[in-house]
Amino acid sequence: MATYGYRLFGFQVFRGNRRTPVDLSACGDESYAEIAERLLKALSVDTAIGDPTDQGQARLEESGSIGQPAMRVEEVRVVDNTIRATVWAGKFGSHEKAIGDAADGDSDISDKAASNLHRVVIAFPDAGDTGIMAVETIGRSCPISSLTGWMKKKSREEGTEGTNEGLWWRIAVQAMADEERLAEMIREGQAQKLVLVKNSVTAGRTRDVRDVEITASLAVTGRMDQTLQVVRDWYRRNREVGREEAEATTTARGVRQLAAIVGPEIESMDLDDGWVEIQDPDGQVKRVRPNQMTEVFTYRLSEDQPVVTPSFYAAVRETALGLQQAARVAIDWPVS
User: Fold this and answer.
1) Where are the beta strands (DSSP E) in the chain?
2) For 269-316, what is each residue's pLDDT tens digit?
3) CA neighbor of 109 nearest in space, from 119, 121, 94, 131
4) Angle 79-82-86 from CA coordinates, rounded to 5°
């Protein structure tokens, strides 16, 4: 049974391989909204096959398309300060046959990419270097990496043509963290255990190996509340980095906090790593670490079939508005 939902990402744009993000309203002589619209429309002409990196394209040329990811953009439209599109995403050879209601209605699709349709919303601020991208998820599938990778590749191809030779734009995304959603997942029991690790050096001193691994259930009285308090501390510290003298929680400090929850005999051990293990509704296990907690946030909408587009957009808008202030993003979202 497929579950439908969405993920939210903050995005920034960089000129080529530079490391300073640009103002989204001023990428050369255009805004990035204009550039993104053009890139997405370019990706609707043909199917993008394989990994968009040079190495991925070399593998495609050598081995063919079977087993390779595939993507095609459709229905690109601009609504005020947003771009809304749909993306077909799948993999070549992932299914052998599409069956009809009778045998003579079957179709061999072993040489095609069986794909699902994902809705995408890209929202831009009036000024500033950070926007928000929402991408529909189907089960564990979310084509964010493929989409942004191909947008980058298309931009590089543009940069080799015409008068803008060498001018291209790289889009980078990071999943948006959500304190309340994280707390809800822990309270609902999706956070199942703490894991603490001690590493040691091999006898030949050639590499580190996992020497000790300790798992502790969160079902023990009091541990769930203590874990929630610690994780919220991580989130708030990370959110405040860059403001005044705030510092992110280090791995060492986070491990000590988790060990203290388990007990004094564990706290006194010289542990190297630790995390809270969360299992999402689709059964995928994810790890929440002191400085890495954004990968767990998928917002569920429905099961079996997607919600209608107005409902999808309204849910995305409501969630994004609730996260913008903490993420220091200012976007005036259209109502519909």
Assistant:
1) 3-15, 48-49, 69-79, 82-92, 97-98, 107-108, 113-123, 131-138, 169-175, 191-201, 208-217, 273-279, 285-288, 299-303
2) 889 899 999 887 667 788 888 877 766 788 889 988 999 999 999 999
3) 94
4) 85
pLDDT: which is higher, 103 or 305 = 305
Provide DSSP, 173-185: EEEPP-HHHHHHH
The rounded distance, in Å, linking the Cα atoms of 116 and 137 is: 10
Burial of residue 201 (number of CB atoms within 10 Å: 0-12, 13-18, 19+): exposed
Q: Which residues pair with 293 in a beta bridge?
A: none
Partner residues linked to 170 by β-bridges: 14
Q: What pLDDT is stored for residue 163 in this prediction?
A: 54
> How far apart, in whole angstroms, are the C-alpha atoms of residue 28 and residue 155?
13
Joined together, the tokens standing for residue 160 give: 């080799």
**DSSP characters for 95-110?**
-SEE--SSGGG-EE-T
| Predicted confidence (pLDDT) per residue in 51-70, tens digit | 998 888 988 888 888 889 99
Question: Measured in Å, how far apart are the chain's first and last C-alpha atoms?
Answer: 30
**Residue 80: predicted pLDDT:** 97
Residue 84, classed as helix, strand or coil, is strand
* Tokens 């300073």 found at: 20
Read off the tokens for 103. 């045998």
